[in-house]
Amino acid sequence: MEPDTLAAAIKTWGTEIGFQQVGITGIDLAEDEHHLLDWLDRGMHGEMAYMERHGSKRSRPERLRPGTLRVISARMDYLPAKATPAQSVLDGKEMAYVSRYALGRDYHKVMRSRLKKLARRVEAAIGPFGYRVFTDTAPVLEKALARNAGLGWIGKHSNLLHTEAGSWFFIGEIYTDLPLPVDEKFAGEHCGACQACIDVCPTRAIVAPYQVDARRCISYLTIEYRGVIPEEFRTAMGNRIYGCDDCQLVCPWNRFAQNSTEPDYLPRQRLDSVTLVECFLWSESDFNDKTEGSAIRRIGYECWLRNVAVALGNAPGSAAVIDALNSRKDHPSALVREHVNWALAQHRETLR
To answer: How far is residue 179's CA from residue 71's CA, in Å, rounded to a whole number?
Structure first.
């Protein structure tokens, strides 16, 4: 099969498999490597030491998979149509807010499975070839690669945006040794003078256009970070217990976003409408059962309680909230106790 014909077929097969768009790019990321190293030098990765440890593997695909010539980049919408509206959960201070991407099945599993299926489809057409699939599971500059493959531009909040799809989508890659023709880079940056994402960020984590300080980001603090959450950010976290979507919720381009038709992304275990008290009273066994097959599982039970304790400290004072917090004030984990005590201190007036 001629390279042009194969490239067109790959895009067709990708949409048949369930991706909304597929593009192809080369492996030159020199300019993005400069930005990455500057970000790391400024310590904005926080305690994600693996980002520094991987070095140039992230910006030089051929180092991660020797022989790589091209990257096939794919995106898949994930915003569930049948979920409690995000803003109503954020406004319901007694509710637990879980980032929309984590309401359903773990996207790593869904995307990886589809990318492998696409690779096998190629293999069936041309025979064995060299490839490796990635879905946020290795040092990959996936947003830069997706931009170069024509899937969108990187917005001021550092998420990938598309003029016809907004930002509510996952991206994944196939690194390959196939000499395929490449697509044109997505033309321009279309944020203009808008800085709604910068203004809305609860912890001011978007320190400048296109620059996010992970150490201030609620997604980092509730998912990647394993330590004591700095007190300066706790009140601003509100009822967000796993991730934060504020910069996407306010983005004007998301009026063009499409709801996902993928059943795997539908909410599980009522995670779109569960209360903070209910989440906090889960036993470790409950947590493991209710997060089976979910991206949430990886933060572990201790950090789950830590996050929910902070949210309970921000919740309206009630007997149920106080009782729930008191039930964990002698928890074996010093990390949990620290945040429970802080939360109880926020309710001093209620306790009187």
So the answer is: 10
Looking at 237-284, which runs of residues are DSSP E strands?
Answer: 240-242
213 among known catalytic residues:
no
Distance CA 156, CA 143 (A): 13
pLDDT tens for 108-135 read 999 999 999 999 999 999 999 999 999 9
User: pLDDT tens, 187-235?
Assistant: 888 999 999 999 999 999 999 999 999 999 999 999 999 999 999 999 9
Give the global pTM. 0.95
Residue 220 gets which letter from DSSP? I
Residue 160 dihedral angles phi and psi, to the nearest 5°: -80, 135
Residue 242 β-bridge partners:
98
Whether the per-residue pLDDT at 237 is higher than 80: the answer is yes
Integer Cα distance of 347 and 309 in angstroms? 12
Burial of 131 (0-12, 13-18, 19+ CB in 10 A): buried
Q: Are 176 and 70 in contact (CB under 8 A)?
A: yes
Of the candidates 136, 183, 246, 323, the residue annotated as catalytic is 136
Q: How far apart are CA 128 and CA 60, in angstroms?
A: 24
Buried b (16+ CB within 10 A) or exposed e, 82-91: ebbebeebbe
> Which is it for the CA torsion 107, 256, 269, 94, positive or negative?
positive
Query: Closest by alpha carbon to 223, among 324, 314, 291?
Result: 291
Angle formed at CA 81 by CA 78 and CA 84, multiple of 5 degrees? 110
**pLDDT number for residue 352:** 61
Among candidate residues 299, 243, 301, 294, the one with its CA nearest the CA of residue 270: 294
Nearest to 200 by CA among 111, 86, 75: 86
Residue 137 has pLDDT above 90, yes or no: no
